[in-house]
Amino acid sequence: MKILAFAGSNSSKSINRKLVIHTLSYFEEETVTLLDLNDFEMPLFSVDRESKDGHPRQAHQLLEHIEACDLIIVSMAEHNNSYTTAFKNVMDWCSRVNGKFFQNKPMFLLSTSPGGFGGGNVMNSAKAYFPKCSANILSTFSLPSFYQNFEENEGITNPQIRADFIAKIQELREGLKK
């Protein structure tokens, strides 16, 4: 199985990237492509720019990565109760090339934040919107209070939250079998 993984953040200190990397440790037998959103930086989307210059090559490159994978693992960062500007811009460009840009690929949708809601607002937005872009969300997990519940060398430290996370991975694996 080929896994495409990334965080919906362009921060060099992204806690969502740390969550993605931890999640990938449960898929060590798989072929993994871990992307950095910074490698897909594009001009701010506008219809005028699209009309004048067309679609950036980075949008096509990301769509090629999606096409080549069997599973997408993405952890959404939350800025002001929504997607980060960097992720929204990438999504806007990709959707102009292919409105169904998630290409019906199975997805494990994650989020985390320093607060107790764990990026719940962006998670709810993504769960509502991503299927309209042809995401096949098989499982979701939100990690609350990242700095209290996660250690870089250990992963999720809270036993109950870790058990919930492992159950979500099992749910994902079962969904992939169908």
TrEMBL record:
Signal peptide: none
GO MF terms, alphabetically ordered: FMN binding; oxidoreductase activity
SUPFAM superfamilies: Flavoproteins
Domain NADPH-dependent FMN reductase-like: 1-140
Stored InterPro entries: Flavoprotein-like_sf (IPR029039), FMN_Rdtase-like_dom (IPR005025), NAD(P)H-dep_reductase (IPR050712)
Gene3D superfamilies: 3.40.50.360
Pfam family, one: FMN_red
Listed GO CC annotations: cytosol
Name of the protein this chain belongs to: NADPH-dependent FMN reductase
